[in-house]
Structure formats: structure tokens, C-alpha cells
Write a sequence for this structure.
């Protein structure tokens, strides 16, 4: 997502809620000051403040909505007044949340930036991702290098998240649950000349995430064993994925797949491949 689209995604729900609240104020209580009208519903007022400072909030709108829901539930459980407020203002509050969600979810359809690995490894063997879901939008290039490594660069939209802090952990969790990591692996390995068929290989996690220093940049990477299903499961290679968050709602992933025993021995975290990539 370009920075322009990121700015529009940030400002649009804020403006939409303000315009909607202004129209409600004009219709119902134009005699009061507009700022007092906004403060009359602390839930919407806090939501507007969070939207204003969304660039500073890790995990973005999802942290706001989950955190707000938890706090509201606690307050409602402890206060009769809070429960009455929710009964009286539930429609307006739900509508405000719907406005925010619609805009941020629609932003997930915006195409991300193009992968940059072509400047390092030349023309990719594969561009695009078969059966990739339209949401969130993604771009993926795959290279098979002379040393036998398969390199996959993926640019992925992260709707609702503008701050890169904690974004890799959040996206990794969604990727694990949704099966996106396994799908990315299967598509990449299918390009091998000695591919033995669909589902012949699977992944077994070595670790769920380690922060590593790549040319003075600390990045999260995950490490998986590649298991061959041949009269039992046998380790036959390894896969490393490095997660690079960006400001504005986009995640860049570099996945390096190598077959053989201990293929990354002496090259922890696929350091050499990642350093070449970061140098672009």
C-alpha cells in the first residue's frame, strides 16, 4: 500500500464519524457546543482519539477494538450506569465500529507494493500466487537459485494496522492459523525438479520466532523443518521466513527453502540471503 492510501485509510473513518456525529448534533441538539456533544458519549469520543493516534498504536484498529471491548465489558459488569449507557447508545456505538471496520477491511483489497528481489536474483521463476485469496491482497515472486535454494518474496496487506510494532507477531499468528504459511511453502517447493507430488512434504516448527540481527536491523524470523512423508516422516530440509513490517499497513516476507541436512549451518537465519535482499 502506498503512503497515500495509508493516509486515506487512516483519515477516512475519522472524518466519516465526525461528519456523522455533526449531522446527529445538528439534528438533535444544535444548541449545545459540538465538542460537548462528542464528550457526551465517552465511548465514541475515545474511539475518535484512538483513530487520531492510530499510527502510534501497535496492532492498530484490532488493538483498539479488542481493548475497548474488554474495558467496556469490565465497566458494564461493575456499573449499572454503564449498562444503561450501553442500552441507550448501543446503536450509535455499533454504527461507529461498523464505519471503522468497513473502511479498514476494504483497504485490504488495495494491491501492495511489488517485490524487489528481482534486483538481487534476476527475473523470478514465478510471479503471483496461485489460489491466493483476494483479501488481504498480496504479491509474491519465487526464485530458484543456482545453489538450490528457493527464495520467496511476499508483500502482504495488513488491514487496520499502521504501526509496525508487533505486526510480525500478529501476522505470523494469523498465517499459522489460516494455513497461509503451508500454502506458500507448497507452492514454492512444487517448482523443484524432483518434486514428488502434492502433500509429500510438510512443515514442522523448529521455533516460532527469534529476533536476529540482519546487518544492524533486528528482524523476526521463523524456522521450520521440511518433513518428507516416505514410509514415515523424515527431515529433508529447512525453511526460514523473515518478517519485515513497514509503516502504513504492509508486511514484507522473505522465505528461503533449502533441502538437505542442516542447510543453514553457518548461515543462521538465512543471513546471507536476507542481507542481499536488504541491500536493495
Amino acid at each position: 500500500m502506498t503512503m497515500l492510501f495509508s493516509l486515506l485509510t487512516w483519515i477516512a473513518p475519522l472524518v466519516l464519524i465526525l461528519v456523522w456525529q455533526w449531522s446527529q448534533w445538528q439534528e438533535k441538539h444544535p444548541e449545545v457546543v459540538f465538542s460537548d456533544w462528542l464528550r457526551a458519549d465517552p465511548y465514541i469520543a475515545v474511539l475518535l482519539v484512538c483513530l487520531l493516534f492510530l499510527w502510534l498504536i501497535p496492532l492498530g484498529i484490532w488493538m483498539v477494538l479488542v481493548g475497548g471491548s474488554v474495558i467496556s465489558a469490565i465497566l458494564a459488569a461493575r456499573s449499572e450506569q454503564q449498562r444503561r449507557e450501553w442500552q441507550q447508545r448501543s446503536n450509535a456505538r455499533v454504527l461507529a465500529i461498523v464505519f471503522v471496520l468497513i473502511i479498514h477491511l476494504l483497504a485490504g483489497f488495495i494491491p501492495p507494493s511489488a517485490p524487489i528481489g528481482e534486483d538481487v536474483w534476476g527475473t523470478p521463476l514465478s510471479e503471483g500466487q496461485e489460489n491466493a485469496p483476494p483479501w488481504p491482497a498480496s504479491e509474491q515472486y519465487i526464485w530458484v537459485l543456482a545453489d538450490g535454494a528457493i527464495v520467496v518474496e511476499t508483500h502482504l496487506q495488513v488491514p487496520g494496522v499502521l504501526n509496525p510494532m508487533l505486526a510480525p507477531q500478529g501476522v505470523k499468528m494469523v498465517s499459522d492459523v489460516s494455513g497461509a504459511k503451508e500454502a506458500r511453502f507448497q507452492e514454492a517447493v512444487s517448482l523443484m525438479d524432483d518434486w514428488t507430488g502434492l502433500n509429500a512434504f510438510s512443515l514442522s516448527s523448529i521455533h516460532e520466532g527469534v529476533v536476529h540481527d540482519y546487518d544492524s536491523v533486528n528482524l523476526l524470523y521463523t524456522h521450520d523443518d521440511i518433513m518428507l512423508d516416505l514410509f514415515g516422516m523424515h527431515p529433508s530440509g529447512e525453511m526460514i521466513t523473515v518478517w519485515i513490517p513497514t509503516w502504513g499497513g504492509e508486511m514484507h516476507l522473505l522465505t528461503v527453502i533449502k533441502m538437505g541436512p542442516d542447510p543453514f549451518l553457518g548461515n543462521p537465519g538465512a543471513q546471507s540471503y536476507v542481507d542481499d535482499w536488504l541491500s536493495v
